[in-house]
């Protein structure tokens, strides 16, 4: 079961590869550049990158091809990502209220030498397009674009995703600031080095994946719609720590999901390898006052063994 949780965290985190030491907080400018209808938001402290071999291995095993494009595009953007970027955020958002289609936009925060970067673009013959006062530059041959909305905030991603972000940033569409569910959840996590928030549909999908066969039982269907929002944090500074919270709005739903998760853990302990059993012994599931909490902790050695296990491979393949 925990391998599912690992995959959800790691895929969303994209370029974590780090032992985090500082909080990953979004500035006001970054928040306004995120469209309102967010399905998942991931925020990463990028400064402390490459200090954890465990996080590096996690990244290499789970990053899918489409998200690798973001990593490649950032590296080819003219930025020195190890020095210029302090925080990274990735927002998966619905393109309209009536549509199920989603797009992803990246937000990089740091101290950017924008004049120097633009001068480098000019030397390479890279010309921008314009949306109002915003200059949009192509990111090499990746098919992505970037726009500096100020000296410390860069928006990047596919053209349509960046346009949507700029519509929100310029006040022509609602932004994350108008999403009270995410803003309330953010207060619980934005002091952490890596954190993510999922909306109701994202939370329901995540739990369905986490529960596996247990998610097909009637008990889950009876409480599925009561899963309102979830958030998690992940820390590689001293071993691996993962904390997930799910708000259900009532104690019955939280207790039911807690029972299902505990049953899934017991099943994995009985059927898994010694490595998987040891990993699951570090998983704690509980509920209180309408909130479900999942905590996992492991040493670097134990977590590295889990990454090589058949259970983990069956989830991330």
Topology:
Elements: H1 2-13, H2 28-32, E1 38-45, H3 53-62, H4 65-75, H5 81-84, E2 85-94, E3 102-110, H6 114-123, E4 129-131, E5 134-138, E6 145-150, E7 153-157, H7 159-169, H8 180-186, E8 194-198, H9 200-211, H10 218-223, E9 229-235, E10 240-247, H11 251-271, H12 274-280, E11 283-288, E12 291-298, H13 300-307, H14 310-316
Antiparallel strand pairs: 1-2, 1-8, 2-3, 3-7, 4-5, 5-6, 6-7, 8-9, 9-10, 10-12, 11-12
Written description of the protein model:
The chain is an alpha+beta fold and 317 residues long. The chain starts with a helix and ends with a helix. The chain has helices at residues 2-13, 28-32, 53-62, 65-75, 81-84, 114-123, 159-169, 180-186, 200-211, 218-223, 251-271, 274-280, 300-307, 310-316; strands at residues 38-45, 85-94, 102-110, 129-131, 134-138, 145-150, 153-157, 194-198, 229-235, 240-247, 283-288, 291-298. It has 14 helices and 12 strands.
């Amino acid at each position: 079961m925990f391998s599912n949780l690992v995959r959800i965290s790691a895929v969303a985190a994209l370029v974590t590869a780090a032992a985090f030491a500082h909080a990953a907080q979004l500035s006001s400018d970054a928040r306004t550049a995120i469209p309102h209808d967010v399905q998942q938001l991931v925020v990463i402290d990028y400064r402390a990158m490459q200090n954890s071999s465990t996080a590096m291995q996690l990244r290499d095993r789970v990053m899918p091809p489409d998200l690798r494009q973001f990593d490649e595009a950032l590296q080819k953007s003219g930025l020195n990502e190890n020095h210029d970027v302090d925080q990274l955020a990735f927002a998966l958002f619905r393109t309209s209220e009536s549509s199920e289609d989603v797009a992803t936009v990246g937000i990089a925060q740091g101290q950017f030498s924008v004049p120097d970067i633009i001068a480098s673009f000019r030397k390479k013959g890279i010309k921008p397009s314009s949306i109002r006062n915003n200059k949009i530059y192509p990111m090499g041959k990746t098919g992505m674009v970037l726009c500096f909305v100020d000296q410390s905030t860069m928006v990047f991603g596919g053209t349509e995703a960046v346009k949507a972000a700029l519509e929100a940033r310029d006040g022509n569409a609602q932004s994350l600031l108008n999403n009270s569910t995410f803003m309330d959840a953010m207060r619980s996590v934005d002091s952490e080095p890596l954190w993510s928030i999922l909306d109701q549909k994202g939370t329901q999908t995540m739990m369905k994946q986490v529960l596996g066969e247990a998610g097909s039982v009637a008990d889950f269907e009876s409480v599925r719609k009561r899963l309102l929002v979830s958030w998690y944090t992940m820390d590689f500074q001293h071993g691996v720590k993962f904390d997930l919270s799910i708000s259900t709005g009532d104690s019955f739903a939280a207790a039911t999901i807690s029972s299902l998760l505990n049953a899934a853990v017991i099943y994995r302990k009985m059927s898994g390898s010694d490595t998987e059993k040891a990993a699951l012994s570090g998983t704690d599931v509980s509920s209180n006052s309408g909130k479900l909490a999942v905590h996992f902790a492991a040493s670097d050695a134990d977590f590295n063994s889990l990454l090589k296990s058949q259970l983990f491979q069956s989830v991330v393949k």
